[in-house]
Amino acid sequence: MKIILTGSLGHISKLLAVKLVKDHDVTVISSAEARQKEIEDLGASPAIGSLKDADFLTKTFKGADAVYCMVPPNYFTEPNILLFYRQIGSNYCEAIQRAKVKRVVHLSSFGAHLDRDTGPVLGSHAIEHMLDKLPEIVLTHIRPTSFYYNLNSFKEMIKAQGTILANYGADKVPMVSPKDIAAAVAEEIIKIADVQKYRYVSSDERTGQEIATVLGKAIGKPDLKWEIISDEEMQHGMEAGGMPENIATSLVDLYASIRSGKLAEEYERQKPQKMGKVKLEDYAKEFAKGF
Question: Which of 52, 189, 217, 279 has the most CB atoms around its CB within 10 Å?
Fold first, then answer.
């Protein structure tokens, strides 16, 4: 198969490329020319260009048997992240149609079924609806749960305050490793039968305090606590740490939807029969290395 991967050599796409190059003709799209040799060293073909360029995407997609589409989470570089999602989604749709691609796997998110109060996940919601309207394609939306590495944002808080403060965490939080996402995408992108419209991917589920206990043990702080605070306190804390107000508000909304259970309601209905291999204790070793 000729397979096109977006996402350059990011957390998921690099792992995905390594899995697929063994048996397939893989092209990796990257906006960074510096990545070209690294992509070639993996055994893939580089396509250097911008996701904001629909003509470039169309040219790259031509002749492909399958395309993996994702949107870089440029929260701190794009002035309007939802507009950015819609722009990239529109370019994907145009390129898929013009290049006559038949198989598309889209990296979405759990909570993408909701049309409000989910912060940046609204971008995934918008792209799902754009892709759903395309005729004559076989489409799968991969809906991973919360990424383990999002917990890295608590490192400075732990160092400064000796605790984790968040506006969610009383109930279990489903989390996932990029390794398990890459494995799921690799399975889906080469499927010719039993194709799923939505596939949820998760590795583990823990409460906030369970997360704190595992991370604390890994970093030599076995008594680390996870304290639940209000949305207002969460917003103030993020802004005090230098986060722009609009981004802080978006993330507070997202975390509040985790707390309420809204973000995971469809995940609970369509939970994967088998969880991923990478557990919180495995991730904690990585967390500790950079602490």
Answer: 189
Residue with tokens 């799968």: 140
pLDDT (tens digit, 0 to 9) for every residue of the chain, 291 residues total?
Answer: 999 999 999 999 999 999 999 999 999 999 999 999 999 999 999 999 999 999 999 999 999 999 999 999 887 788 888 999 999 999 999 999 999 999 999 999 999 999 999 999 999 999 999 999 999 999 999 999 999 999 999 999 999 999 999 999 999 999 999 999 999 999 999 987 889 999 999 999 999 999 999 999 999 999 999 999 999 999 999 999 899 999 999 999 999 999 999 999 999 999 998 999 999 999 999 999 978
Q: What is the DSSP string of 111-139?
A: TTT-SSS-TTHHHHHHHHHHHHT-SS-EE
Contact yes or no for 130/90 (Cβ under 8 A): yes
Q: Name the architecture of domain 2-148+175-202.
A: 3-Layer(aba) Sandwich (3.40)
| 175 vs 165: CA distance, rounded Å | 18
Distance CA 118, CA 143 (A): 14
Rounded Cα distance, 63 and 14, in Å = 22
User: Strand, helix or coil at 144?
Assistant: strand
Nearest to 67 by CA among 34, 104, 42, 32: 104
Q: Which residues pair with 226 in a beta bridge?
A: 164
